[in-house]
């Protein structure tokens, strides 16, 4: 199987104008998002939508080509935080905001 024949259309407005049924466009969106339309549609409907999309060079029976990672809308579940030590601001010295404990004298 060669995926070079697949021509994913990222601009849905072009696809909607070219394809007569909006349901086939919905099947294309499912396929493009990584779902298998075969599992979600009745058999006759799947093949009817496949036939409509094949006229435009899109075969929804094959896995969709991977999307560009820069266009991903997936939000990462964990984010690495980098901690930096905090320093005391210079303006705090000598004000009531800074508590300076008394120095203890060594008795000896």
Automatic annotation (TrEMBL):
Residue ranges annotated for the Replication-associated protein G2P C-terminal domain, each copy included: 27-92
Under InterPro entries, the record lists: G2P, G2P_C
Q: Please give the biological process terms from Gene Ontology that the record holds.
A: DNA replication
Supply the NCBIfam families for this chain: rep_II_X
Protein name from the UniProt record: II/X family phage/plasmid replication protein
Protein's organism: Marinobacterium halophilum
């Amino acid at each position: 199987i060669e995926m070079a024949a697949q021509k994913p259309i990222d601009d849905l407005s072009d696809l909607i104008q070219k394809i007569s049924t909006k349901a086939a466009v919905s099947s294309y969106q499912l396929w493009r998002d990584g779902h298998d339309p075969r599992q979600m549609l009745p058999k006759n409907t799947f093949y009817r939508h496949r036939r409509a999309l094949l006229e435009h060079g899109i075969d929804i029976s094959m896995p969709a080509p991977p999307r560009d990672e820069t266009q991903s809308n997936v939000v990462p579940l964990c984010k690495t935080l980098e901690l930096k030590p905090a320093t005391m601001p210079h303006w705090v010295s000598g004000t009531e905001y800074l508590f300076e404990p008394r120095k203890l004298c060594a008795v000896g």
